[in-house]
Write a structure and sequence with these properties.
Number of strands: 41
Shape: globular
Number of helices: 16
Strand order of the largest sheet: 16-15-12-13-14-17-24-22
Strand content: 25-35%
Length: 669
């Protein structure tokens, strides 16, 4: 018999899972597949139209199309997912995180279809997965709470906000991930923020219920990982700190928290177990708190696996997906509370397709080059490969990079170096911002409250020194030259650069951000190159060239750079990170000017609503329209007072990045 603590389980009562449907996508689908296969369980993937060729689809043993493009038409469609499970002949369903993972109706539908639900019971999800229900349940149990007001149709939102005191937080009752959340600092912004939060919550979770809560402007976001089985065993796996966030979404998580001592850790762990025991919780879950000094306040319970679960796995040695599957089969937990110890420190960074220099706006596109880092204590959970497209319909996360080490400082240094070593090109991302964050004195000292980004302001992009730019331009030019020689059909045996007379140097111009790099080079008789970059001379020796890159000595300094090309783009990766250069045409293109006063789309997306009309006079800061991309709403406000001269879009339109949305004629002053 299998047992932990007081639980004794007959093997006959264990129902093995043999074929598992993964009701999710991207990196979490791959991560669940990995553990399932290690346990001898076959997997079935489901996929939307745009995910048909995604790595998670090919990694499963079978895959079933959901015949839909958006989340609502695919991963959020309960009937389609249940039908896929039946068609795939599965005996269990793992929901991953997001989508339907905290939907009690879906959990019950899985059970009613005769399949095993990998997660807490539908009743537990109803009672504690809904944030408002959880607060009502826990209030008499002595768990510290922040006062909340449900914003139903009859609620007086303005009066509730005045009672709480500004700033207030509007929050979705269902789901998580920062969706359906808005901070409101002024009473006049409250109605629009409530409407926006409701739309976003309904689109993400099919539940538009929102509530008001007090907003603590300086606090830490600390969560306790819990794990329970069906035999009464329940443990906590210590805490994770997730205070560094943008748009209420975590981007750096760590375990343990640098802010908790043993006494506070024990108090918070017991509060989390109190919440879990109140409903007989099973499977994995996370109890989230805000911590201010030595005080903590309950936020919510996530009745699912968390995105950041790898840091807990790193410090405990457990595989949380394995524990989930074992619990679902009827097995007891593999550990008791007395078995658990914190071993070292782990930090996770979320690599996302977004622009930190432009308010972290999502930046969909195609990943041209992808080579994740490797090394002891480094883990990468990704849902992409070279050629993968990051679309507008789903989360912009590209990968999670996790580093573990004996100490927090070592883990931070290791993670920063691993991110620098990550080779990713073709898409705008937040890697430089993550590296800068990990190396700030504030992060290293553990000063990581939820206002970290606004207060510390880590650099959104790394500063590139002149020597690195010149080396990249030289490497790109000489690698292009090598490729041209390899492709030559005539006189291929003659050394490149050979001339029987004095000829002008070869010239090529690259662009990097707003800089031009004009390269002129000539091969010398000794095989070296005389090169000028923006009229600055360099002596260059080729030490080695391959299809993947080039090894050059520039003025006595050695540079080894990987080089890849796509059309006019040159993607280089060196010891300091990535550089993307663009080869400029030899002859200038015709000038194309934009309409005066034109407002362009900051990213691809769908027009969710248009609240102005042509000819309308608007004030500076007034809302013009709302775009939706990657399940998040983005306001387009008037940058100045004026008159709407031209309105180029309507509700429901799909727009490309840079598309002209509105022409706003500025008022005379």
């Amino acid at each position: 018999m299998a047992h932990v603590g007081s639980a004794h389980v007959k093997l006959a009562d264990v129902k093995p899972i043999r074929r598992l449907l993964i009701a999710n996508r991207s990196e979490i689908a791959r991560r669940i597949t990995r553990t399932a296969h290690a346990m001898g369980i076959s997997t079935v993937a489901i996929y939307s139209d745009d995910d048909a060729d995604a790595p998670f689809v090919h990694g499963a043993d079978a895959a079933i199309a959901l015949q839909g493009r958006t989340a609502a038409d695919s991963y959020l469609d309960i009937d389609k997912v249940i039908a896929a499970g039946k068609r795939g002949g599965v005996d269990a369903v793992h929901p991953g995180y997001g989508f339907l993972s905290e939907n009690a109706t879906f959990a019950q539908a899985v059970i009613d279809a005769g399949m095993t639900w990998v997660g807490p019971s539908p009743d537990a999800i109803r009672k504690i997965g809904d944030k408002l229900s959880a607060k009502r349940l826990l209030q008499p149990l002595g768990v510290p709470l922040l006062e909340a007001f449900e914003l139903n149709e009859s609620a007086d939102a303005a009066r509730a906000a005045d009672k709480i005191g500004y700033p207030v937080l509007i929050k979705a009752a269902a789901g998580g991930g920062g969706r359906g959340m808005r901070i409101v600092e002024r009473a006049k912004d409250l109605p629009q923020a409530i409407a926006s939060a409701r739309r976003e919550a309904a689109a993400s979770f099919r539940d538009g219920t929102v509530f008001l809560e007090r907003w603590l402007t300086r606090s830490r976001h600390v969560e306790i990982q819990i794990l329970g089985d069906r035999h009464g065993n329940l443990v906590h796996l210590f805490e994770r700190e997730c205070s560094i966030q943008r748009r209420h979404q975590k981007i750096i998580e760590e375990a343990p928290s640098p802010a908790l001592d043993e006494a506070l850790r024990e108090k918070m762990g017991q509060a989390a177990l109190t919440a879990a025991r109140a409903i007989g919780y099973t499977s994995t879950g996370t109890v989230e708190f805000l911590v201010a000094g030595k005080n903590f306040y309950f936020l919510e319970v996530n009745t699912r696996l968390q995105v950041e679960h790898p840091v807990t796995e790193a410090i405990t040695g457990l595989d949380l997906v394995r524990e989930q599957l074992r619990v679902a089969e009827g097995e007891p937990l593999s550990v008791a509370q007395s078995d658990l110890r914190i071993d070292g420190h782990a930090i996770e960074a979320r690599l996302c397709a977004e622009d930190p220099a432009n308010d972290f706006l999502p930046m969909p596109g195609v990943v041209q080059v992808w080579e994740p880092p490797q090394g002891d204590g480094i883990r990468v959970d990704s849902g992409i490969e070279a050629g993968s497209r990051i679309g507008i319909d789903f989360d912009p996360m590209i990968a999670k990079v996790i580093a573990s080490a004996p100490t927090r400082r070592e883990a931070a240094a290791k993670l920063a170096r691993a991110l620098e070593a990550t080779r990713i090109h073709g898409i705008t991302h937040n890697r430089d911002f993550l590296v800068a964050t990990l190396r700030t004195s504030e992060f290293l000292s553990g000063d990581t409250a939820t206002d970290f980004i606004e207060r510390v302001k880590p650099q959104p992009r790394r500063a590139v020194a002149e020597d690195e730019l010149h080396a990249a331009a030289i490497a790109a030019a000489l690698h292009d030259r090598w490729n041209q020689r390899c492709a030559a059909r005539a006189m291929a045996t003659i050394p490149g650069g050979f001339r029987n007379s004095v000829m002008p140097p070869e010239r090529v111009t690259y662009a990097f951000a707003d800089q031009k790099l004009e390269v002129a080079y000539r091969r010398n008789r000794d095989g070296s190159f005389a090169v000028q970059v923006n009229d600055q001379p360099h002596r260059v020796i080729e030490r080695g060239v391959t299809e993947r890159g080039i090894d050059v000595e520039i003025d006595g300094c050695r540079w080894e750079l990987l080089v890849a090309s796509a059309d006019a783009h040159r993607f280089l990766h060196g010891p300091r990170g990535d550089l993307d250069l663009s080869e400029l045409p030899r002859f200038p293109e015709a000038d194309r000017t934009d309409a005066h006063g034109g407002l362009k789309a900051p990213m691809p997306g769908r027009v969710l609503s248009v609240v102005v009309a042509e000819g309308q006079v608007v004030e500076r800061g007034q809302l013009l329209l709302v775009l939706e991309a990657m399940k998040m709403e983005h306001r387009i406000d008037a940058p100045w007072a004026g008159t709407i001269k031209t309105l180029n879009v309507a509700e429901g339109d799909q727009v490309a990045n840079g598309a002209m949305l509105v022409v706003l004629e500025q008022a005379e002053t």
